[in-house]
Amino acid sequence: MTAAWCSGLRKRYRQRTAIGDVSLTVRRGEVVGLLGPNGAGKTTVIKMLLGLVRPDAGEVLLLGRPGRDPASRAKVGYLPELFRYQPWLTATEVLDLHVRLAGADVPAAARRETLGQVGLADRAGDRVGGFSKGMQQRLGLAVALVSRPELVVLDEPTSALDPIGRADVRDLLVGLRARGVAVLLNSHLIGEVERVCDRVVILDKGRVAAAGTLPELLGRPEVRLRLGNVGEEAEKRLGNFLRDGAEYVVLDAGEDEVPALVADLVALDVRIHAVEPGRITLEERLLDILREAK
Ligand SMILES: Nc1ncnc2c1ncn2[C@@H]1O[C@H](COP(=O)(O)OP(=O)(O)OP(=O)(O)O)[C@@H](O)[C@H]1O
Ligand SMILES: [Mg+2]
User: Which SUPFAM superfamilies does its entry note (predicted)?
Assistant: First the structure.
């Protein structure tokens, strides 16, 4: 079922078209990545989805309700791009405040658990004013998650996090997906997106430049073979494959193609140093798409 949907969103700021025409869907139990260069419109799209910026045109549905109905946001968790909490509050008090503001009913134990999930259990009683950048971002995540939302929208959740924090967030997102929660996340850390997202929407200059599942965007994996002692017979057997320096590349390999090739090469006394799956990375694909669009 659809958790977030928008169609034909447009937004101008004075003479500048921030969003030309954006439609996208996030289904329950799906993690969708929103990618694109600075100024592409990612934050603006997120804000229009959440009713924080009024679109000039287009429609929004959140968890089955029209975006203009405030009740549509009752089960939505949001981590904004730029935020500051009241520095005199402790982490626990910030969570308490947001639970109250959301009108949610979250027992104290569950609030503590959420702080634990983002790695702040032992800083729960400390004032936010003394938090490091990454700790503030962790607290922002806790605020987004504490009320057990059905849709979670995260605008750059890991930009300030250390590698362990990023891995933690990845685990958190996988856990949310397993519970059927929908996640829309915007990040410049493309490796993160590639690891965790089911689908990706690439924005460029206020438009959707590409969208799809990772296999749709990246194509089938290739396989690279590093070989030694390649005799004449083996050369013949490898004749159809692309040669890239010392490696042979099997593009778009069928189910049994690689095992059959390896078996033949072994029979021909070829020494097999490596058989490695390779595929263009999402980062390479993203750069291609953005350069093509120029
Ligand atoms: N309040 C505003 N007033 C004027 N222009 C705005 C406003 N908010 C956004 N814009 C413009 O809309 C465009 C998209 O901005 P947006 O913040 O959505 O980009 P983004 O994709 O989130 O970029 P980043 O990766 O840097 O966060 C930019 O050209 C920006 O200058
Ligand atoms: Mg942004």
Answer: P-loop containing nucleoside triphosphate hydrolases
Note the pTM of the prediction, 2 decimals.
0.87
C-beta of 20 in contact with ligand 1 (< 6 A): no
13 lines ligand 1 (CB under 6 A): yes
**224 and 179 assigned to the same domain:** no
Please spell the DSSP secondary structure of 181-245, one letter per residue.
Answer: -EEEEE-S-HHHHHHH-SEEEEEETTEEEEEEEHHHHH-SPEEEEEEE---HHHHHHTTTSEEET
pLDDT at position 97: 94
Angle of CA points 173, 84, 94, to nearest 5° = 70
Q: State if residue 201 touches ligand 1 by the CB under 6 angstroms criterion.
A: no
CB-ligand 1 contact for 114 (6 Å cutoff): no
Candidate from 6, 9, 10, 13 with most ligand 1 atoms within 8 A of CB, to mutate: 13
- CB-CB neighbours of 188 under 10 Å: 14
pLDDT 10s digits, 198-247: 999 999 999 999 999 998 998 877 888 999 999 999 999 988 888 888 78
Same domain, 182 and 259: no
C-alpha 115 to ligand 1 mean position (Å): 31
Q: Which ligand is nearest to the CA of 45?
A: 1
Residue 175 counted as domain residue: yes
Mean pLDDT in the chain?
Answer: 92
For the segment 147-183, what is each residue's pLDDT rounded down to a tens digit? 999 999 999 999 889 998 899 889 999 999 999 999 9
Q: Is 187 in the pocket of ligand 1 (CB under 6 A)?
A: no
Give the pLDDT confidence score for residue 251 in this predicted structure: 79
**Is any atom of ligand 1 closer than 6 Å to the C-beta of 44?**
yes
**Domain extent at residue 227:** 220-278
Of all protein residues, the one whose alpha carbon is nearest to atom 12 of ligand 1 is 18
8 Å CB contact between 122 and 151: no
Residue nearest atom 17 of ligand 1, based on CA coordinates: 43
Average pLDDT over residues 67-88: 91
